[in-house]
Amino acid sequence: MLLALVAALGGVGIGGMYLWLTSAPREVRVPDVAGINLRAAEEMLARRGLVAQVAAQRYDEKAPAGDVIAATPAAGRTVRQGRVVELIVSDGPPSVRMPDVREMELSRARDVLTKSDLRLARIARRYDDNVPRDWVMEQTPAPGDRVPRRERVELQVSAGPAPSPTPPEQRAEAKQAVVQVVLPPGDRDYSVRIEVEDQRGLTTAYNAWEKPGATVSRVVSGYGDAVARVYVDNELIEEKRF
Known about the structure:
By secondary structure, the protein is of the alpha+beta class. About 15% of the residues lie in helices and about 40% in strands.
């Protein structure tokens, strides 16, 4: 009787093990869903019998908004069907609201843009009889726009009233200054432009492509109160008055 009982219990155990093995969720590998849209990731996981769940969202400089950045368990892991796969989804690059720097003095506008983590890339000057010199008239991007951090900003700044023709006897003699810039290292050429603004107006003194790491040094000329501005890849990096 004892042997019969042991045999019966053994049969129950084996049967239960067989039932568990045949009814338990089968194992699958977690697919690689990083870098694809959330909807596509959900469908891919569902086809494997896995459940997608957004665990967090965060800004990412490289991943477009709505794309999956990472998943847990990681791609290639073996799990049973029905397992929840937690996803981290991109909110896109971090953005800021473009401040309104119109009708601001240029120095103050620079400070506002810097505090907003934006880059002043280019200053375009034009004469205006009504707007004081060095005050901002227009801006791109427009005020209120949502833009990525470190976005390049272009300002149109007043050069003051247009100068009156100067009689020959009152014309200032040309002055000269040395403008120099050292380009950063890298694997691409840089666009270098030097502009001079003086009593005669705005002129381009130099405009060329230069090798990375090169030192660009030029002698520029101006009349009266002159200022030389150096742009690298259209970004203002230096102003020199002479």
